[in-house]
Design a protein that fits this description.
Length: 54
Protein backbone atom coordinates (compact mmCIF):
# COMPACT_ATOMS: atom_id res chain seq x y z
CA UNK A 1 0.00 0.00 0.00
CA UNK A 2 2.82 2.37 0.78
CA UNK A 3 4.21 1.89 -2.74
CA UNK A 4 0.81 2.62 -4.27
CA UNK A 5 0.39 5.76 -2.18
CA UNK A 6 3.58 7.15 -3.77
CA UNK A 7 1.75 7.35 -7.12
CA UNK A 8 -1.14 9.48 -5.84
CA UNK A 9 -1.19 13.14 -6.86
CA UNK A 10 0.29 15.53 -4.30
CA UNK A 11 -3.10 17.27 -4.03
CA UNK A 12 -4.91 14.06 -2.99
CA UNK A 13 -6.26 14.30 0.58
CA UNK A 14 -3.73 12.70 2.93
CA UNK A 15 -4.98 9.64 4.80
CA UNK A 16 -7.99 9.15 2.54
CA UNK A 17 -6.49 7.90 -0.72
CA UNK A 18 -7.37 4.31 0.16
CA UNK A 19 -9.95 4.89 2.89
CA UNK A 20 -13.25 6.74 3.27
CA UNK A 21 -12.50 8.06 6.71
CA UNK A 22 -8.88 7.25 7.44
CA UNK A 23 -9.84 3.78 8.76
CA UNK A 24 -12.36 1.97 6.52
CA UNK A 25 -11.26 1.10 2.99
CA UNK A 26 -12.81 2.80 -0.03
CA UNK A 27 -13.29 1.01 -3.37
CA UNK A 28 -9.64 1.44 -4.38
CA UNK A 29 -8.42 0.22 -1.00
CA UNK A 30 -10.69 -2.82 -1.21
CA UNK A 31 -9.38 -3.70 -4.69
CA UNK A 32 -5.79 -3.33 -3.52
CA UNK A 33 -6.42 -5.56 -0.49
CA UNK A 34 -8.16 -8.20 -2.64
CA UNK A 35 -5.23 -8.33 -5.05
CA UNK A 36 -2.80 -8.63 -2.14
CA UNK A 37 -4.76 -11.51 -0.66
CA UNK A 38 -4.95 -13.30 -4.02
CA UNK A 39 -1.18 -12.92 -4.48
CA UNK A 40 -0.59 -14.24 -0.95
CA UNK A 41 -2.74 -17.27 -1.79
CA UNK A 42 -0.49 -17.98 -4.76
CA UNK A 43 -2.32 -16.39 -7.69
CA UNK A 44 0.32 -15.15 -10.11
CA UNK A 45 0.36 -11.54 -11.31
CA UNK A 46 -0.51 -12.80 -14.81
CA UNK A 47 -3.64 -14.50 -13.48
CA UNK A 48 -4.86 -11.64 -11.31
CA UNK A 49 -7.97 -10.09 -12.76
CA UNK A 50 -7.64 -6.72 -14.40
CA UNK A 51 -9.70 -4.46 -12.19
CA UNK A 52 -11.23 -1.34 -13.66
CA UNK A 53 -9.80 1.78 -12.08
CA UNK A 54 -6.28 0.46 -11.56
Amino acid sequence: MQESLKTFPAAAPKGKQLTRDGVHMNALGNRMMARGILKTLGVSEANLPVIKGE
